[in-house]
Amino acid sequence: MNRLRGGGRQITVLDRQRRRRLDRKRLGRTVGQAAALVKLDRRELNVVVVSDRRMAELNRQYHHTPGPTDVLAFDYGDSAELVISLDHAWANARRYRTSPWRELMLYVVHGMLHLAGYRDGTSAERQRMRRAERRVLRQLAAGGRGSPR
Fold this sequence. Notes:
This protein is an alpha/beta fold. Helices cover about 50% and strands about 20% of the residues. It has five helices and five strands; from the N terminus they run ββαβαββααα.
């Protein structure tokens, strides 16, 4: 478990999978930068990294959907939690010919945007979400400068 404080926010990264190595400190720092860019107003943010098997259990439990997904976002008011499948990130990185880290960051940003009020149920909502994801990912790659909107 890694805990970071910054910008009045506590970020906790929990690695609950065993298949792959995860740089929790790097993930925690990047999550903090992404939260600032998205202007996420939660005082506590937990990021829990899990396997596809565990993600499938959670997806079935909370969304009544079979199989794993990339990220689940839980909003508890003053705090929030992102549950991310690292297996999914690795598999999709191969599929889309990108790095597992970039795929993981996409899931972090996508989950945060949901917490910030973005939706992706309609075509127009998905387009808006994808534009915001691209902006935030570009800003993270550039060192976390700027605003996502």
